[in-house]
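To assess whether the prediction recovers the assembly geometry, we first specified each molecular entity separately, as shown.
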Amino acid sequence: MIWLELFWTFFKIGLFTFGGGYAMIPLIRSEVLSHGWAKTEDILNFIAVSETTPGPFAINMATFIGRTTGGMIGAVCATVGVVLPSFVIILIVASTYEKFKKNKVVQGAMVGLKPAVVGMIAAAFVTMGIEVLSPKDGTGVLSSVVSSAIFLIMIIPALKKKSPIMIILISGLIGVAANVFLSV
Amino acid sequence: MMNKGKELFFTFAKIGFFTFGGGYAMIPLIEKEVVDKKRWISNEELLDVIAISESTPGPIAVNAATFIGKKTGGLTGAFCATFGVVLPSFIIIAAISYFLEAFRELSLVRYALFGIRAGVLALILKALVSMFGQSNKGALPYILMTASAAAVIFFDVNAIVVIIACALTGIIYSMIRGREQ
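The predicted structure of the complete assembly is given in tokenized form:
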């Protein structure tokens, strides 16, 4: 029952992602890595695909992982799953949003949620960074040095809010060049 | 009613198709299409939509589409707008997933992805820095940030558990402070 599992997993991801976009990465890591549907490398590849194609990150991620693990029906199940919680909650909240905004419990929860998201993105950055940048079996120290160099070179343009598409393109070109000239 | 649904579908399909990166990147386009052109909601209501998106789960795009769709065309409107904002990415990503599967073993693609993964790390760092910049300062936020990061890095705690724990902490903290004042 891979389809039901995809639906349920992405339903949970949709239900517990606050803030959208990169806030979803910790949940993807927790839920998708544990199922063995993707590896850290795949998640980083997905982020690159998401950044260079239109549409919300969450949808892109759900469609991609759904499709690769459960075919087109899997893609539909995962995408419906990730959309459904927001859809239902907004339908409920839409008519009472003045009350919702001022609700003490909602405001209190946000006080705790926002820092949690920041902390978990930091954790995702550290764990995925260690995995990508450290030397692995089969590849040498040289490839780890090249990865680290690409990461360090891209920090400044990324922080200066240069287009993510440009950053991905240039990183890809450096990756190809490094492999052609250094065969890392 | 039917026409309204169609209009909502196409407007949000356009928004979904022309937004890269998702999230807040979508707001200017929503403003142009939904506030300026169609006049379905006012600028103040758009700010409300953003505020509500922040305090409800799920992608901002879906939240905004559902909210504006509901307001303009009821339940059918909500469905049409949400379906519209999702469909372009769904089709594009489904197509790309076949390509990536077919070409990922190609050495050129493998080399490019090797470099791209390092570049994506820099993008995650950027997201982290900007979210940190926007977050509240103070003892409680910093403690929760550190605790959540440590729970995930050192104990591999599930993200959902961390989120529930921190939300409860926030609720309890706010209640105690509310009583003190």
